[in-house]
Amino acid sequence: MARSRTPTAVLEARGSYKKDPQRLKDREDEPQGVGVIGVPPSWLLKDAATVWRELAASLPEGLATATDRPAFEALCNYVSEQRLEGLLESKDAAQMIKLFSVFGMTPADRSRVKSSVKKKVENPFEGLRRAK
Fold this sequence. Notes:
Blueprint: H1 8-14, H2 16-19, H3 22-25, H4 46-58, H5 69-85, H6 90-102, H7 107-112
Helix pairs in contact: 4-5, 5-6
């Protein structure tokens, strides 16, 4: 079985293009995802919608977009089914693990994904004014 194609954002975060700039040429016309992952769709079952909110909160920031909603929906359905039924068929379990990997939600995958979104360091003294 062929290896999955590594997302461009992951390659860029790893610095792969600095080492081999030619790799970027193959992907220069690649479409970008739009929007944010957002709230669960109304047609999701209650348990899958709960999983959606749980997993969306733990996604690496800036990784998933509205474009990724169908794949994220499938992941939520697999997780919900696994929780309700206890065990998934091996093909479904394999697909669920693959989707976790795609969304950077395993320890090994998280170590490979870097977000372009910078965390804002909050200043606890911001907003305080100097007394006159």
